């Protein structure tokens, strides 16, 4: 049975505070939530002062967490040497998201009908780490999108597995909570949307333009074709390694991504992307 709305959110924020992470400023339901922006993706979200909470305050609808399986725990950090006991996928993301969904009647943001994406980037060995992720996700099944015997049931939060992804294990599963993050090579493949709802790729592997001057017409056409192909097979699009230093080059790339229909714009600068998207409605 769920805790009450106030108690559930408070419990999740208390868990963050116990890890030395400051809670969000007080609000009626315990966390300040911004206006949700469907295209806003927080790259390496856990490196912010308040993992998840800062992203939610800026209206982000997708966050990325790198995980390592260490002594049976899913620890969140970019590098193996940076893991800390207690800084887990469960405490930073699954518990707070579950509390918010329970408190907001089935959505991360009150009244928002979109799916929140939790991108879980596996850094350790693929198969055992994925198995541990599935076990933890199962404890939060009521908020999650799930796949069962050929059918996908949408939830408030969709967990997408990136990094070291065990494709054969995931594709063979009759039931799962994790979905596969594809790559450019998967465009036009037979991988169904029920397995691969997202295709991500390094921007610099595909495009030479970095926001200086106008985007070459050939590259704009390539981007439009890429996005159209992904959408045709039921997959959303994300790029990493796009320019992210403040300045006109970054905003020029963001504008092209938005115009082309790229679903998730990748950034470490939460406030800047929030402003950019808010200005464009």
Task: Supply the key terms.
AIM6_PI-PLC-like_dom; 9 helices; nine-stranded mixed beta sheet; alpha/beta; TIM Barrel; PLC-like_Pdiesterase_TIM-brl; phosphoric diester hydrolase activity; 281 residues; 12 strands
Structure description:
This protein has 281 residues and is α/β, with parallel strands linked by helices. The chain has a single domain (5-279), classed as Phosphatidylinositol (PI) phosphodiesterase (TIM Barrel, Alpha-Beta Barrel), CATH 3.20.20. The protein contains nine helices and twelve strands. It has helices spanning 5-18, 53-57, 89-103, 126-138, 167-172, 203-206, 217-232, 248-260, 270-279, and strands at residues 37-42, 60-70, 73-76, 116-122, 146-148, 151-153, 157-163, 175-176, 178-182, 198-202, 236-240, 265-267. A hairpin with a 2-residue loop joins strand 2 and strand 3. The longest helix has 16 residues, at 217-232. Residues 1-9 and 15-29 have low confidence and may be disordered.
């Amino acid at each position: 049975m769920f805790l009450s709305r106030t108690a559930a959110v408070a419990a999740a924020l208390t868990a963050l505070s116990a890890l030395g992470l400051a809670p969000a400023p007080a609000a009626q339901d315990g966390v300040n939530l911004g206006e949700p922006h469907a295209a806003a993706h927080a790259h390496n979200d856990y490196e912010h002062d308040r993992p998840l909470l800062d992203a939610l305050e800026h209206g982000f609808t997708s966050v990325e967490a790198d995980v390592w399986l260490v002594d049976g725990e899913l620890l969140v950090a970019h590098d193996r040497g940076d893991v800390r006991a207690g800084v887990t996928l469960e405490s930073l993301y699954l518990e707070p998201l579950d509390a918010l969904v329970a408190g907001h009647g089935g959505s991360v943001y009150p009244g928002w009908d979109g799916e929140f994406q939790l991108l879980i980037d596996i850094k350790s060995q693929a198969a055992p780490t994925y198995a541990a992720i599935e076990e933890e996700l199962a404890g939060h099944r009521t908020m999650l999108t799930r796949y069962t015997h050929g059918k996908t049931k949408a939830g408030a939060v969709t967990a997408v597995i990136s990094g070291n992804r065990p494709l054969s294990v995931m594709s063979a599963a009759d039931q799962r909570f994790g979905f596969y993050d594809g790559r450019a090579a998967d465009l036009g493949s037979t991988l169904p949307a029920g397995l691969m709802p997202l295709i991500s790729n390094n921007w610099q592997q595909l495009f030479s333009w970095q926001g200086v001057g106008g985007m070459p017409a050939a590259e704009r056409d390539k981007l439009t074709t890429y996005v159209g192909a992904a959408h045709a097979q039921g997959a959303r699009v994300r790029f990493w390694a796009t320019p992210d230093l403040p300045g006109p080059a970054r905003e020029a790339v963001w504008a092209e991504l938005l115009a082309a229909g790229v679903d998730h714009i990748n950034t470490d600068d939460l406030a800047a992307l929030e402003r950019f998207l808010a200005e464009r409605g």
